[in-house]
Amino acid sequence: MYKRLITIVLILAILTTAMTGCSGGKEISIIKKPTVKADTIGDEVVDANSQFAFDIFKAVYNSDKKGN
Asked: 3-state DSSP call for residue 18?
């Protein structure tokens, strides 16, 4: 009798604990929305970013001819 009562209490405790994690509370998101709209980024910024990337690629390529 006591074994059955303890089993039922443990099952209820586990279910209650599991269900509290499913409550519909405030959603928390780690994804941040961008503060700058894509339309406001000028062509000169895009060009400078591209030039910077190519300069780094060229420097890495020229510095290590033996490695991968």
From this structure: helix
Please give the Cα distance from 24 to 13 (Å, whole number): 20
Global confidence as pTM: 0.39
* Residue 49, amino acid: N
Helix (H, G, I), strand (E, B) or coil at 44: helix
Given its phi and psi angles, is residue 18 left (phi above 0), alpha (psi -120 to 50 degrees) or beta? alpha
Q: CA 49 to CA 51: how far, in whole Å? A: 5
pLDDT digits 0-9 by tens, 25-48: 667 778 888 787 777 778 888 899
